[in-house]
């Protein structure tokens, strides 16, 4: 662990439990935003790839009614 990180950790551990909880919440939240942005980008790319396959005729779509019927029957 780098010295600045150790110093920051040492200072953070001296905070009150309430302050540490708030800091932890903010740090975790900042990570979730990064993950969400990455996931959003990957899902967009996947959707574009699938749309391209449908438009090119490489794959055929399945009617929604058929998909829903199959999903419902598998849940029974």
Output the keywords.
3 helices; mainly alpha; single chain; 76 residues; elongated; 83% helix
Structure description:
It is built from three helices and no strands. The mean pLDDT is 92. The chain has one domain (16-75). The radius of gyration is 23 Å and the shape is elongated. It has helices spanning 3-13, 17-56, 64-75. The protein has 76 residues and is mainly α.
Shape: elongated
- What is the CA–CA distance across the termini? 53 Å
Question: What is the number of E strands?
Answer: 0
Q: Helix count, per DSSP?
A: 3
What order do the SSEs take from the amino end to the carboxyl end, as H and E? HHH
List low-confidence stretches: none
Biggest beta sheet summary: none
Kindly name the structural category: mainly alpha
Proportion of helical residues: over 70%
Q: What is the residue-mean pLDDT, rounded to a whole number?
A: 92
The number of domains? 1
* CA radius of gyration: 23 Å
How large a portion of the residues is in β-strands, by DSSP E? under 5%
Task: Please describe the topology of this protein.
Layout (H helix, E strand, L loop, with lengths): L2 H11 L3 H40 L7 H12 L1
Short structural summary:
The protein is 83% helix and 0% strand. The protein has helices spanning 3-13, 17-56, 64-75. The longest helix is centred in the middle third of the chain and has 40 residues, at 17-56.
């Amino acid at each position: 662990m780098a010295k600045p990180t150790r110093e920051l950790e040492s200072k953070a551990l001296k905070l009150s439990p309430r302050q540490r909880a708030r800091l932890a919440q903010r740090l975790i939240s900042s990570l979730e935003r990064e993950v969400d942005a990455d996931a959003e980008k990957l899902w967009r790319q996947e959707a574009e790839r699938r749309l391209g396959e449908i438009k090119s005729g490489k794959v055929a779509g399945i009617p929604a009614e058929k998909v829903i019927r199959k999903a419902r029957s598998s849940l029974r």
